[in-house]
Amino acid sequence: MQNTDTFNIEKFIAARNFNLPEGSVSDGVLRHIYEIGKSQKLVNTVETGCGRTTVILSWVSQNHTVFAKVDSSNRDTLEADWMNPSKVSWTLGPTQKTLPQFDFKTKLDFVLIDGPHGYPFPELEYYYLYPHLKQGGWLVVDDIQIATVQHLFRFLKEEPMFSYDCTVDGNTAFFRRTAAPVFDPYGDGWWEQPYNLNHMPWKIRTKDFVKRRFPWTITVNAFIKRRMSSSRPAARQ
Ligand SMILES: C[S@@+](CC[C@H](N)C(=O)[O-])C[C@H]1O[C@@H](n2cnc3c(N)ncnc32)[C@H](O)[C@@H]1O
């Protein structure tokens, strides 16, 4: 077992005696997370899925919560010699079940989404986690090369609640929570999200804009349509 003073990330990366789960983040991402944790105080952190990232976060977080399924990859993590177990709490089971039931009592400094990647699971995890991030907190999304995650990534790049920081080694994106108010998780509000407005076909966008800015045009249009249909000659029998 290591201790806080003796844990050496380069030794951990080089050791390779840790069974790598399928799809582990790159060594560069591990270093990047470690640097963030060394330069900023990470009090409460969360990750979905587990693996080498759990080891790193166990050394830089004061209270790291892991939501993961029990399978061969995380059984190794649970037993990993490299881990700082006193800082890690496990919520075992599919995140599709555990996240909605979890009672978040504190705001989060760091969230890593790297659990199930099939549609719509990364977005489902985002839904249950985004309201709890504190201003300045980190949101990290792994595997943005997968279409489902790429979709979330594109959304986040245009989302006022987050500012894009960087992508490390092509696959792992880092965002920071801005001061924008939390998007109401129980409302609708699609029209407030720049992602929707920016990607709307221009015809619909113009029609929508005119309707919102000049609502009286709806009445005028309806009147014109009615007049035109009443003045149209009756169809031949
Ligand atoms: C890509 S690995 C995580 C790798 C880890 N972040 C790392 O870099 O070492 C994906 C993890 O998600 C877990 N997982 C897959 N489906 C899950 C689900 N439905 N709920 C919870 N965890 C899940 C797997 O057990 C695995 O630990």
Describe the structure.
- By secondary structure, the chain is an alpha/beta fold.
- The chain has two domains: 9-198, Rossmann fold, CATH 3.40.50; 202-231, no CATH class.
- It is 41% helix and 21% strand.
- It has a seven-stranded mixed β-sheet, with helices on both faces.
- Strand 6 and strand 7 form a beta hairpin.
- Helix 2 (27-39) runs parallel beside helix 3 and helix 5 runs parallel beside helix 6.
- The radius of gyration is 24 Å and the shape is elongated.
- It binds S-adenosylmethionine.
- S-adenosylmethionine binds next to helix 3, helix 4 and helix 5.
Write the layout of secondary structure elements.
Blueprint: H1 9-15, H2 27-39, E1 42-48, H3 52-60, E2 61-68, H4 72-78, E3 88-92, H5 95-101, E4 108-113, H6 121-129, E5 133-142, H7 147-157, E6 162-168, E7 172-177, H8 194-198, H9 202-213, H10 216-231
Parallel strand pairs: 1-2, 1-4, 2-3, 4-5
Antiparallel strand pairs: 5-7, 6-7
Bound molecules: S-adenosylmethionine (SAM).
